[in-house]
Design goal:
The chain is an alpha/beta fold and about 120 residues long. Helices cover about 45% and strands about 25% of the residues. It has a single domain, classed as 3-Layer(aba) Sandwich (Rossmann fold).
């Protein structure tokens, strides 16, 4: 497994994105942040992240699940961590067809996500 060095966060809540970005950068990751589907798809191709953290509901009423599917269609195979504040079972059902993905329910403790990344994606 490729070690995680570059992370893309797609999150429309600016404060949540900034807190997560700062925590990940302090843990040694290179991080970019986007807030909508169009920029997430573009950045995933240009930035070539090792991990994508993708909110289910993005800016401009974009759908994170659709974004994840489009990222996969473009040949990007890195792990995707979906984040959401909605029903776990409903979201789990919606993302089950997307390979190599995980689900975190909000609110997310940034220390927990950093530990999860280190514990699950380290070589």
């Amino acid at each position: 497994m490729t070690p995680i060095k570059k992370i893309m966060i797609a999150e429309d809540e600016l404060i949540v994105a900034r807190v997560m970005k700062r925590a990940l950068e302090q843990s040694g990751f290179e991080v970019i942040q986007v807030s909508d589907e169009t920029n997430a798809i573009l950045a995933s191709s240009e930035f070539c992240p090792d991990l994508v953290i993708l909110d289910i509901h993005l800016k401009n009423k974009s759908c994170g699940i659709h974004t994840g599917e489009e990222i996969r269609r473009r040949g990007i195979k890195c792990p995707i961590i979906f984040t959401t504040g909605n029903s776990y079972e409903q979201t789990k059902e919606q993302i089950k067809e997307i390979e190599n993905c995980h689900l975190f329910i909000k609110p997310i403790d940034t220390d927990s996500i950093v530990r999860y990344i280190h514990g699950n994606f380290s070589s």
